[in-house]
Amino acid sequence: MKQSISQRESLTRAAKYYHHALELAEDYLAERGITKAQAEKVRLGVVADPLTGHENYTGRLSIPYITRSGVVDLRFRSMDGQDPKYMGLPGATTHLYNVTSLFHAREYICVCEGEIDTMTLALSCEIPSVGVPGVNNWKKHYNRLLQDFEKVFIFADGDQPGMDFAKNLARELSNIIIVQMPDGEDVNSMYLKEGKDYFLQKIAGSE
Fold first, then answer.
1. CA-to-CA distance for 199 and 142, rounded, in angstroms?
2. How many CB atoms lie within 10 A of CB 47?
């Protein structure tokens, strides 16, 4: 269902409100290699004083899904190991994260699982990237967004669901290049261990 202007405006206001408490997440983000300036760029925040209906998200990282038309969704990530790791708004439609990268990318685009991994590639590594909020949330129409790129790198988590997701996508698109992380690792953990060059070399190695 298409969102109304008022719905997008409401989400944008909520994202801005939670963004004012970003300082509460600085230590958590720093542990993941995400600087305050980077967090500011994607308008991360913290649900310190929840809006009405958001009480269940108290203490969580607020992650807005920003498009050219505004904020279209908010997701909330646990910062203290609390389950579930991620929570979404009731009835929300699944979106790709960081879709603005699609308009700036040239020959290739990268896809990874989760917002933190996407921030890592897009901000810390300066690699054009979009993210899917969980491998089971890929939608067929996303394929059309990727089909015109010369190469689409799937940075798959180092587990079976990650590889299954990458292989399934490779069956549908001919421009897929799978880059699986080592066992038990993901993009963010490998960035913390190996740095930006690890990913640039993976991309350069395909040329």
1. 23
2. 22
CATH classification at residue 187? 3.40.1360.10
- 79 with 108, same domain: the answer is no
Q: What is the DSSP letter of 97?
A: B
Q: How far apart are CA 175 and CA 58, in angstroms?
A: 41
Condensed to tens digits (0 to 9), the pLDDT of residues 49-81 reads 999 999 999 999 999 999 988 899 999 999 999
- Output the six-digit token pair for 194: 């190996």
The two tokens of residue 91 are: 């009835």
Residue 141 has pLDDT above 60, yes or no: yes
Give the domain range for residue 21. Answer: 5-88
We report the CATH number of the domain holding residue 72 as: 3.90.980.10
Tell me which of 88, 121, 144 is where a domain ends. Answer: 88
Q: Are residues 30 and 59 in the same domain?
A: yes
**Same domain for 37 and 71?**
yes
On whether the CB atoms of residues 74 and 11 are closer than 8 A, the answer is yes
Among residues 94, 35, 42, 37, the alpha carbon closest in space to that of 64 is found at 42
pTM for this structure? 0.94
Taking Cα atoms as reference points, which of 72, 74, 99, 62 lies closest to residue 5?
Answer: 72
Pair of tokens at residue 146: 């990727």
CA 188 from chain center: how many Å? 11
- In tens, the pLDDT along 84-113 reads 999 999 988 899 999 999 998 999 999 999
Phi, psi of 116 (to 5 degrees): -65, -45
